[in-house]
Write a structure and sequence with these properties.
By secondary structure, the chain is mostly helical. 66% of the residues lie in helices and 0% in strands. The protein contains five helices and no strands. Helix 4 runs antiparallel to helix 5. The mean pLDDT is 82.
């Protein structure tokens, strides 16, 4: 053991290799947990769990768009419930709105 190793609080050092994709996943976890790599690795190995300190998807940022989509879907549903029927155009509109919602969520997840 060298002098530098004996003066460290944690004298044993191990290395690990990652693919580019694996490292991107590690970096996302480091960001979400607000930890540097060493702390993340220690907690993962010793505790088997990591606490995320922030929400991965923050709906507040998308509140206006989510509200608009939700209101439109509710109007279509209300009309279908009142008339006991939905037109082909209503169904197409609802599917388009759900597509917008899915795209919005996917965009938010890519940003995380």
């Amino acid at each position: 053991m060298t002098e530098a190793e004996s003066s460290r609080r944690r004298p044993i050092i191990k290395s690990v290799a990652f693919s580019a994709g694996e490292w991107e996943a590690v970096e996302r976890r480091m960001t979400l947990a607000d930890l540097r790599f060493g702390a993340l690795a220690r907690r993962s190995i010793l505790d088997g769990s990591i606490t995320v300190k922030r929400v991965a998807f923050d709906p507040v940022r998308f509140g206006a768009e989510l509200g608009r989509i939700g209101n439109n879907i509710n109007q279509i549903a209300r009309q279908a419930n009142t008339e006991s029927v939905a037109t082909r155009e209503d169904v197409k509109a609802a599917r388009a709105l759900l597509g917008e919602l899915q795209a919005l969520i996917e965009k938010a997840l890519r940003e995380v």
